[in-house]
């Protein structure tokens, strides 16, 4: 698209982003002008409406857009890759708002207005991260998501735990973004452009004309920084502390939306920036060699996440380590790229999204009922709320990756791609650590069915949480019974050309 | 006399390492935030040097550094705000005393 002036650009395709931005601005103004006088729930509902509208706009884009469309030389672009991730973010944020209604009612979060529009701004950042092919906009999107989540983590500012985890998040996030930027600055220096599509060939030329070492240095810095957002191995230490101190809906948001956004960014950046580099023998792509290092990260992440989770009794810390382990699994299709990797990633993220949000909704309900965030809160749940206990069982089984759930097929696809690429030791680590994960996931089941709780009184489940748990358990079961349906859907709408959602083509 | 690009890169790398060392070892939280700023400024130095002496010199690097500076300012503002909230609850700015969640 040749943009001579602002009006020659087809702005209508940016409706999802515009709706989210407009919603955030509207809420900020409302909060400023009439914050105290309005009913508290209003902010959440308005934000939820704008998220749903944005989802509808994304759906419309999916139906109408075939080839990737670029704005301002691909600073923002609309392609299937971005659309798929955006659909995930939007559903994740909608779940977050549903989950926060009960949380807000309890008066746990004093600042309803800020809470709602910061979540929306974070969503906007995530959407920009997934749909930009330019270093500058990628970085701004990344920081938009990071800065808003720092504040969201610390939003209960009178609680010490909340302050402390927010500060840890700011410091480790700042260091990580400095690393990312340092890598980006080398990429820029070698290519003289921030556009990733131009970069592909120029980095290849630079590597051939004696700057191979600098290409490698930039890769190391970038990966060191970017593993922070997905909470993978060298940069995972923040996750347990931050998850513990944050309000439960924000924790779920960090575990799903923020992680998926980081993943979208890593895939696009690494594939486009290093996709054109050949090894010194000129035989193969450097990327296949580099993915060996990425697979070490994946293996370490799986081991650390699953082993550390074994000794956790605090629910949110347990979920943090479980999230770290899932980040490790998710790196597998990226390490062993095939034509189907994109479907595998989206399917796995979908299963992870419903499983994690469902479980967090249950955790929110239980910790509110029992006034403890420890695993023993689940004790005797089967006798108090049998339906809830069965739903939680389905979700936990899905996260553990056992059959007749969506999580099983998600893991199965990843396993097949690792095997197809001959990464046998990675497959072995995945199988072994998945087995280890049964111990802590079955901790939930042991507590619910085999321990007796302190009371026999039935549990009161808030409507929002009940809705999420119901939808999540149903989706998990259906995804396990008919795994072909979601895979076929993803393939048809996002990857019909087997080209990773069209990320390699410059926008028109 | 022209200064070769490697000296700019070296200064930036040293600045980055000093910042990283400070961020990882200092006790005072304000100094930690300051050290993170040093790391981000090292990036700016890189970008500006590359905009003039890179393989393909272009103005984009200077534009990028403007974005970096803005974001760095926003980041440190959030950091200080969180630190002030923490200070009100705990009356300390020492990083090693922020350990209530250790187990």
TrEMBL record, chain A:
UniProt keyword terms in alphabetical order: Cell membrane, Membrane, NAD, Quinone, Translocase, Transmembrane, Transmembrane helix, Transport
Entry GO MF terms: NADH dehydrogenase (quinone) (non-electrogenic) activity; NADH dehydrogenase (ubiquinone) activity; quinone binding
Major location (coarse): membrane
GO BP field: ATP synthesis coupled electron transport
InterPro entries in the record: NADH-Q_OxRdtase_suN/2, ND/Mrp_TM
Subcellular locations according to the entry: Cell membrane; Membrane
Membrane topology annotation: Multi-pass membrane protein
Reactions this protein catalyses: a quinone + NADH + 5 H(+)(in) = a quinol + NAD(+) + 4 H(+)(out)
EC number(s) per entry: 7.1.1.-
Domain NADH:quinone oxidoreductase/Mrp antiporter transmembrane: 132-436
Domain of life: Bacteria
Transmembrane segments: 18-35, 42-62, 82-101, 113-130, 136-155, 167-189, 209-231, 252-278, 290-309, 318-339, 345-366, 387-410, 422-442, 463-482
CC per GO annotation: plasma membrane
Similarity field: Belongs to the complex I subunit 2 family.
HAMAP family: NDH1_NuoN_1 (MF_00445)
Role played: NDH-1 shuttles electrons from NADH, via FMN and iron-sulfur (Fe-S) centers, to quinones in the respiratory chain. The immediate electron acceptor for the enzyme in this species is believed to be a menaquinone. Couples the redox reaction to proton translocation (for every two electrons transferred, four hydrogen ions are translocated across the cytoplasmic membrane), and thus conserves the redox energy in a proton gradient.
Assembly mode: NDH-1 is composed of 14 different subunits. Subunits NuoA, H, J, K, L, M, N constitute the membrane sector of the complex.
Protein name: NADH-quinone oxidoreductase subunit N
Gene: nuoN
UniProtKB/TrEMBL annotation, chain B:
Membrane protein topology class: Multi-pass membrane protein
GO BP terms: ATP synthesis coupled electron transport
MF terms (GO), sorted A to Z: NADH dehydrogenase (quinone) (non-electrogenic) activity; quinone binding
Keyword Ribosomal protein appears in the UniProt entry: no
Gene3D superfamilies for the chain: 1.10.287.3510
Transmembrane segments annotated in the record for this chain: 6-24, 31-51, 63-87
Name of the top EC class for this enzyme: translocase
The enzyme's E.C. designation: 7.1.1.-
Reactions listed under catalytic activity: a quinone + NADH + 5 H(+)(in) = a quinol + NAD(+) + 4 H(+)(out)
Complexes and interactors: NDH-1 is composed of 14 different subunits. Subunits NuoA, H, J, K, L, M, N constitute the membrane sector of the complex.
Protein's job: NDH-1 shuttles electrons from NADH, via FMN and iron-sulfur (Fe-S) centers, to quinones in the respiratory chain. The immediate electron acceptor for the enzyme in this species is believed to be a menaquinone. Couples the redox reaction to proton translocation (for every two electrons transferred, four hydrogen ions are translocated across the cytoplasmic membrane), and thus conserves the redox energy in a proton gradient.
Protein name: NADH-quinone oxidoreductase subunit K
High-level lineage: Bacteria, Bacillati, Bacillota, Bacilli, Bacillales
